[in-house]
Design a protein that fits this description.
Helix content: 25-40%
Distance between the termini: 31 Å
Radius of gyration: 23 Å
Strand order of the largest sheet: 3-4-6-5-7-8
Structural class: alpha/beta
Shape: globular
Oligomer: single chain
Length: about 300
């Protein structure tokens, strides 16, 4: 019995730390991000209706002539057609929400100031923009940042013709986080369309195994009133859980404590569990109590 209790203590410690760091009713986090991959939309009234334009499925295979319909939104409230710029907000890893074209966003305040036409384009495979009828692995070969950037280039050409734009109507792209990186890359790859880019919190030099961010998480957790005891507790629990996950005899104890059903099957499941737990702490630091009731101190 003592051995069984000892086996369960690390998992209990993990749960204690996780749920002491934020309130019970919290949004689901995955890899440090909310389900939809972005902050909640700003307050305001959504504008415009859904618009659709024909898009190319594969921009890099001239023999593939398949097309699909991509969703976008427009706000013409402040547009000065003669010389106003085009403000293009790029969708990221989540559904496009027209409320971002509301009047209280930074982009829209500048749209009012400069007489801009405001656009929001949805990223392929997210929201209602479905290039393929299903998400089978074979279809996901068309999901890439390169394809997404080419989508925007086609969209720019479409809008230029649709609104009869001239060289006086300069394009400025906007994005944050992943879509911020897209914004920067768009300016680099298609400068004949994009005159300037706003890239907020943009990881323009992506790294496959970005462990350094966890160093930021550790330093940030140490700033709470409990000081270094908070990240130290997380480290202790993580180390114990890691040992349990690498011991086949203790996997059942982990599954029981975390109510995992069905059972963990292989390295991918174990990695997903560890990543999900780490994502909770990463999320607290990532969003820095930005309208998050669940983000309280350790």
């Amino acid at each position: 019995l003592k051995e069984s209790r000892d086996m369960l203590r690390p998992s209990a410690l993990i749960l204690l730390i996780v749920y002491s760091c934020y309130a019970w009713r919290r949004p689901l986090l995955l890899h440090g991000r909310l389900e939809n991959g972005m902050l909640p939309p700003p307050r305001g009234q959504a504008v415009g209706k859904e618009n659709w334009h024909p898009q190319v499925l594969d921009h890099f295979d001239p023999q593939n002539t398949a097309t699909w319909q991509q969703r976008y939104f427009v706000n013409e409230s402040y547009w000065n057609k003669a010389k106003g710029p085009i403000f293009l907000m790029l969708g990221g890893e989540g559904p496009a929400d027209p409320i971002w074209l509301a009047t209280n966003t930074d982009m829209m305040r500048n749209a009012k100031k400069y007489g801009a036409l405001a656009l929001l384009i949805e990223h392929r495979y997210y929201g209602k923009s479905h290039p393929t009828p299903s998400l089978e692995t074979s279809n996901l070969r068309y999901l890439s940042s390169e394809q997404a950037l080419a989508d925007v280039a086609v969209f720019c050409d479409y809008i230029i013709k649709e609104y009869e734009l001239t060289h006086n109507n300069r394009w400025i792209s906007f994005g944050g986080s992943y879509s911020g990186a897209l914004s920067a890359w768009l300016r680099m790859k298609y400068p004949h369309f994009i005159s300037g880019a706003i890239a907020t919190s943009a990881p323009v030099q992506p790294e496959l195994n970005f462990m350094e961010y966890l160093e930021v998480v550790q330093a940030s957790l140490a700033t709470v009133k409990q000081g270094v005891s908070c990240p130290n507790a997380v480290r202790t629990a993580t180390t114990k859980l890691d040992k349990m996950l690498n011991d086949p005899k203790q996997l059942a104890a982990v599954e029981n404590k975390f109510s995992i059903k069905p059972s963990l099957q292989g390295a991918d499941d174990v990695m997903n569990l560890a990543s999900t737990l780490a994502g909770n702490f990463m999320g607290v630091v990532q969003y820095n109590r930005d309208n998050r009731a669940f983000e309280v101190s350790c």
